[in-house]
Amino acid sequence: MMIEKSKTRVNVPTGAISGEGVAASEKKLEQIAYLFRDRDALARMDPETVVYSVECHEAVAAGTPGGLFFGTSTVRPGRVGDEYFMTKGHFHARRETAEYYWGISGSGVLLLMDEDGSCRAEEVTAGSLHYIPGHVAHRLINTGEVDLVVGACWPSDAGHDYGSVETKGFPIRVVCLDGRPTLEEANK
Length: 188
Ligand SMILES: [Fe+2]
What we know:
- By secondary structure, the protein is mainly beta.
- The chain has helices spanning about 40-45, 165-170; strands at about 10, 15-20, 20-30, 50-60, 70-75, 80, 85, 100-105, 110-115, 120-125, 130, 135-140, 150-155, 170-175, 180-185.
- The chain has one domain: Jelly Rolls, CATH 2.60.120.10.
- About 5% of the residues lie in helices and about 45% in strands.
- The strands form five sheets. The chain has a six-stranded antiparallel beta sheet, with no helix packed on it. The protein has a three-stranded antiparallel beta sheet with strand order 10-9-12, with no helix packed on it.
- The chain binds fe (ii) ion (FE2).
């Protein structure tokens, strides 16, 4: 028997994942323009701007019961008007499944919303650990000047339900007010 070398690497300081079984994707502003409130500011921006990207190690097929996925999300710094760049946000298709997030670098906010629409926000910084229980939608917002990099681990059968968040929306927006990240009612 031999001691095997790992075929996939995590660069611990940066969160970058490389090697076997790694999938990468990115979201551009034009794909998620509907998330942002300031239509005039949007019209002045390059629709090709990358807002966030995800690297994911998938050792099993999506939907496999009992497995885990491991990923790193990077939300770029930027704003549309006064509203910071953010991820789409999602519930898990299998609502009872939970997830861990941990801050790797940068600074931001994790917005959490349960199924009756009540919302709370956790500060994300390097080293912060976030347990996201089942039945809770989650969205990352970069409130800093550099990339917000966040690690994640979640069940391989969790799935993603983006539609419920699109329909309902988060009740809170994170905006820059007097130079500081501020929580604001979404329909203000
Ligand atoms: Fe998730």
